[in-house]
Structure formats: C-alpha cells, structure tokens
Amino acid sequence: xxxxxxxxxxxxxRRRWLPEKSFPSYAYLPGRQPHPVRDPAGHSxxxxxxxxAAEASLDSDIFLWGLDLFNHGYYxxxxxxxxxxxxxxxxxxxxxxxxxxLILLSAAxxxxxxxxxxxxVRHAGRAAALLRRLMNTVDHTxxxxxxxxxxxxxxxxxxxxxxxxxxxxxxxxxxxxxFDFILGPxxxxxxxxxxxxxxxxxx
Length: 203
What we know:
Structural class: mainly alpha
Number of helices: 7
CATH architecture: Orthogonal Bundle
CATH topology: Hyaluronidase domain-like
Number of domains: 1
Distance between the termini: 48 Å
C-alpha cells in the first residue's frame, strides 16, 4: 500500500470533533505555500479575518476545531485557532497557560514538518514547561479536555520533538501528523457543544 493511501486511512481513524467543517485545502508550511490569509491564493484569504472569542471554553467550537486541525496535521492552522482563544482569558490564568502551551506545541509540529529539529525541540520544551504548571489542577478539567494530563502531554511533546517521526515524502501542502498521540476528550465523554460568540480582532 502506498504511503499516501496509508496516511489517508490513519487520518480517517482519527476522530473528528467537528466533522461538518471541511479542512483547509492545504496544510501551510512557511515559504512553501501561499500565506493562508495574506496571499490572495491563500486557503483562507477570502474568509472572515480570525476573530477573537468573547469568552474561552474547552467545549467551544473553536477549541474543538483546533483539536481537529492538530490531530490531522494542520499545525499552523491549529495555532491560529487556539491563538484566538488564548487572547481571551486574563494573563496568568490556567486556561491562558493551557492555550499558550497548545500554541507552542502546534509551532513544534510546524518545525518538525520543516525538518528544523532544534527549533522543534525549543518550541516543545517551552510548551512542556507551561503544561507542567497545570499539573495540580484540582478538578481535572484539562485532563478531560485533552484526553491525558497536561504533565503526560508535556512528556510526550518533548519526546516527539527529540526523536521526530520519520517523515515521508508528501505532496506539497498535504497534511501530515507528526505526533504519536491524539488530543481530545476521552471516549464516552459527552461533548457539550458551545458556539462561541465573536468580535473582530483588533489590528
């Protein structure tokens, strides 16, 4: 079986949280495809600008969309989705720390795909440091949302960056998961969907 067909099967086996939402036409890697929002040929150029959520929630469509993007190898796009949530909570709050950790983990995914291991290790290390700050969250909210504890995610992120998966040749723009874990609520946990209200990001 060819690698592309195998990856398509693996991708199908990864759960979708927002299956009604179509993935972007390509997974952006800097310098290899048009910038998604700045270039007229970008996959999101004609879309509404990324908006800033009025409130952040781990049950929101934006968070779940970020999970879908991350799990299926759209790391730059996951970074953008979670950044819109990161700007909402007050500085120093655990929720803001979580979003920043996920943003840095997404950046590590981009660097792994680019073959820039030193940068990947740096981003994964920064993500892990933030995630370990959340180890003592009493109600396990983050563990339920991620499918593992923040500390376990920190360990796995660092390991993946140190010894990245062997990347196969892919078509330009094809998404490629590089982490051996999948983020998301544990199987059997009901998802209380919350549509998040938006306001435009201030430029």
